[in-house]
Amino acid sequence: MSSHARAARVLVVGSANVDFTVAAPRLPAVGETVTGGTLLVNHGGKGANQAVAARRLGAEVRFVACVGDDSSGREIRAALAAEGIGVEGVAVTREAATGTALIVVDREGRNQIVVAPGANWRLTLEHVRSRADDFAWAQVVVCQLETALETLAWTLEEARRRGIVTILNPAPVRDGLPDIWRLVDYLTPNEGEAGRLTGTDVRDLRDAAAAAQALRARGVGTAIVTLGAEGVLAGTAQGEIHAPALPVSVVDTTAAGDAFNGALASALGGGDRLESALRFANAAAALACTRRGAQPSLPTRAEVDRLLQAGERAG
After folding, report:
1. Domain extent at residue 148
2. Could you tell me which of 1, 70, 117, 204 has the fewest CB atoms within 10 Å of its CB?
3. Helix (H) or strand (E) holding 99
């Protein structure tokens, strides 16, 4: 079980969306309409999800993002504040609507997602630069790839300049990525993202180890490849670490990766060793798969501790 010697101070710079999720009998093929689903509307976006995940797991969290000047943006900001997340860094723009995600989830919990970035791509370099107090406060900075790439690059550069631990969740993988790898302490792709970044197929632990080392060769400190039911494989300077997944009944995998990243930030910022942080993050991700939706599925610290304790008893 993770000990978390202290509460981490986590700064998340990233995206915030409103999610429209349909639970359908199966995922549609190209050109096909699948009927019989049910609709769930809630808040998401990788950045916001990771901020909520870290907060529910005990970290102090501040969030830098951009939402539209609309009802969705106001609701997102209020919900994050209600979680206890610092939202002074959430900008508002009239140039675009709040980001929107359309999600389909099948009976096995697999999903298809398409996103209209909207205001997320209006998170400007000038706005992030204005949040100097947040960077001075943070122990860990977490980023994704759903905002402007120049803003991402500056954020990682500034975090490195200040000696802050950096976590980059390279999702979704995009063309034109700048050479940011030397600025990343922990890179957290899933198997598909690791494959796209390295130009290889990642299908098992051996493939994941090879992809992790290829990413480290670019300058990444530690590459952590998440593999769903196979757990995670971390490539470090000292070798590979495999952390098995915890078995759960999967309902919806949406935000499982965000739960993992938020938990990783919380654990590392709290002083955990990597092996313990990976177990903690795996447990958070597993629990997120047992409930529908993005932020509604994200677990609390007590829930994660109970799952880890149950796993220890079973072992």
Report:
1. 9-16+45-98+121-314
2. 204
3. strand 99-105
Does the residue 2 lie in any domain?
A: no
Instruction: Say if residue 127 is exposed, middle or buried (CB neighbours under 10 Å; 0-12, 13-18, 19+).
Output: middle
**In the prediction, which pLDDT does 2 show?**
55
Does residue 21 lie within any of the structural domains? no
Asked if 244 contacts 231 with a C-beta cutoff of 8 angstroms, the reply is: yes
58 near 301, Cβ under 8 Å? yes
What are the angstrom distances between the C-alpha of 304 and each of 64, 70, 180, 279, 295? 26, 35, 32, 10, 15
Q: What is the CATH number of the domain that holds 279?
A: 3.40.1190.20
pLDDT band per the 50, 70, 90 thresholds, residue 293:
confident
Is residue 283 predicted with pLDDT exceeding 90? Answer: yes
The predicted model scores a pTM of 0.94
Residue 35 is assigned to a structural domain of this protein: no
The 3-state DSSP class for residue 282 equals helix
Question: Does the structure show a pLDDT above 90 at 124?
Answer: yes
What is residue 1's DSSP assignment? -
CA separation, residue 127 to residues 25, 71, 297 (Å): 43, 22, 30
Neighbouring residues of 43: CB distance < 8 A, sequence distance ≥ 6: 16, 17, 18, 19, 75, 76, 79, 294, 295
Q: What is the pLDDT of residue 3?
A: 63
Catalytic positions are 258
User: What's the pLDDT at 5?
Assistant: 64
- pLDDT tens readout for residues 5-53: 678 999 999 999 999 999 999 999 999 999 999 998 999 999 999 999 9
Peptide bond connecting 172 to the previous residue in cis, omega within 30 degrees of 0: yes
Domain count, the chain: 1
Q: Tell me, yes or no, whether 169 lies in a domain.
A: yes
CA nearest neighbour of 315 among 279, 264, 287, 272: 279
Q: What is the DSSP string of 234-263?
A: EEETTEEEEEPPPP---S--TTHHHHHHHH
